[in-house]
Amino acid sequence: MNYLKHLAIIMDGNGRWAERQNKKRSSGHEEGANNVRTITQYCAKIGVEYLTLYAFSTENWKRPKTEVEFLMKLLTKFLKKELIVLKENNIRFEVIGDISKFSNSLQKAILHLKKETVQCSGMTQILAINYGSRDEITRAVNKAIKTGVTVSEEDISQLLDTSNFPDIDLLIRTGGDQRLSNFLLWQSAYAELFFTSTLWPDFSTGELETILSKYKTTSRRFGAL
Ligand code: IPE
Ligand code: IPE
Ligand code: MG
Q1: Please, which residues have CB less than 5 A from ligand 3, an ion?
Q2: C-alpha distances in angstroms, 189 versus 157, 171, 208, 214, 223?
Q3: 50-76: per-residue pLDDT in tens?
Q4: What is the whole-number distance in angstroms between the Cα of residue 60 and the centre of ligand 3?
Q5: Contact 10, 180 (CB under 8 A)
Q6: Mutation test of ligand 1: which of 9, 10, 11, 16 has the most ligand atoms closer than 8 Å to its C-beta?
Q7: Could you tell me the domains of the chain?
Q8: What is the pLDDT of residue 149?
Q9: CA distances (Å), 216 to each of 69, 85, 170, in order?
Q10: Share of the chain above pLDDT 70, in %
């Protein structure tokens, strides 16, 4: 039986979820944010140690200005509401991605939530925001160049945003597309991949449970026999 230490989810399909109901894309994002809470609490309850959620990619800035602005507001609102939920569930909050591109108030809200939950000893919830694997690796390489010494695989892992977290065991993408969209390329080298056509706002704890039971019995060989 495989143990699940680190679960990563590409939460895709909010826009299509809304469009299918003749609603604005923004209402899909709102519903998606509500589902983050549901899935996070469930993962904490079943003993997942790290949960990384892809919420905004380095490429998502290419969307219409109105959508980007809406997502930034939603993120700020979400972070403010989250403190009580995280504390109640003993969940520590962390972030990966280049947050220096966000407004000062959003950066403050992120750092505040991290600080307020630093003592929580249950699951760690890691939000990937303004995150792109290539950007992360490029920043890591530039840090390495500054040190002036050659680097090992272990050194590179230590220079990434995920230095304090283990590699991904299981990666789930909702929304029907079978691609990684620049998410955790290094860290998912031996992750088990699951793709579901369910749109993120509809992704339920029941479906997650089904995926987890398949994951548990998969033979993970890591190149060995
Ligand atoms: C994922 O849902 C959330 C973000 C990328 C912010 P989308 O907004 O990509 O929804 P679809 O893929 O257009 O349906
Ligand atoms: C991936 O979804 C990013 C997030 C879920 C945050 P996208 O909707 O941005 O990915 P593509 O453009 O379909 O590859
Ligand atoms: Mg999408």
Answers
A1: 12
A2: 12, 11, 22, 19, 11
A3: 999 999 999 999 999 999 999 999 999
A4: 9
A5: yes
A6: 16
A7: 6-216 (3.40.1180.10)
A8: 87
A9: 40, 28, 10
A10: 100
